[in-house]
Design goal:
about 180 residues, alpha/beta, Rossmann fold, seven-stranded mixed β-sheet, about 25% strand, methyltransferase activity, transferase, SAM-dependent_MTases_sf
Length: about 180
Amino acid sequence: MLEWLRRPLDTAAIAPSGQALALLITREIDGSSGAVLELGPGTGVFTRALTRRGVAERDLTLVEQSPAFVGLLKSRFPASTILNADAAHLHQGTLLATQQFGAVVCGLGLRNMTSSQVEDIIRGSFAVLAPAASFYLFTYGARCSVPDDVLDRLNLSAEKVGSALRNFPPASVYRLRRIGSVQ
């Protein structure tokens, strides 16, 4: 909550995501998924769920903009790669140019961003995702937080995975895929 008070526009929620949401957003990812990119891990609730599902800590790359959260993540997940960076800059190709990921988990408050920022984040993520891999995100809204025009431009589909009604506030999880990809 302190980080939200310091930077309310940069922090998606007042409180960390709950276990119900963490279990839902990570349920299709496990140790066989390969390397996982997490955007906006915050306190590491989704990160912990990923490790519990068998993703090796060394296979996690965490992109976090907040220096306070970066310090916390380094102490909690020392074997992971932690980048203190803005996820909207992934599309520039320098942060993760040599890496390919089996999944992306997004903890960013996309509804608080401009359509251009969201497109940059999604474009950059899919540039480093394996061809049939998926991008997972959550929203507190009634629809996917990636605008339809962005999905169309990037040739992506959004499918609702489920809802975490026991999360505060309740949230829905969506999976983005390249159109035509089979998993």
